[in-house]
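Standup notes
- DV: blocked on the single-chain target, sequence here:
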Amino acid sequence: MKIYTTRYQAKKARETDPYYNGAEKIVKVDGGYALMTEEEYRVWKLQM
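- DV (later): unblocked, structure below
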């Protein structure tokens, strides 16, 4: 998972990077913002 410093960078990556399919959500994590699917988010929340 890549961490972006700004929400704008995460949004731009979601729209332009072919790795992401657009279903990912932008989530504030320690150190910035990350793109996660709903399933990845559930797992991440359980680890906190």
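- Follow-up: Strands lie at 3-4, 25-29, 32-36.
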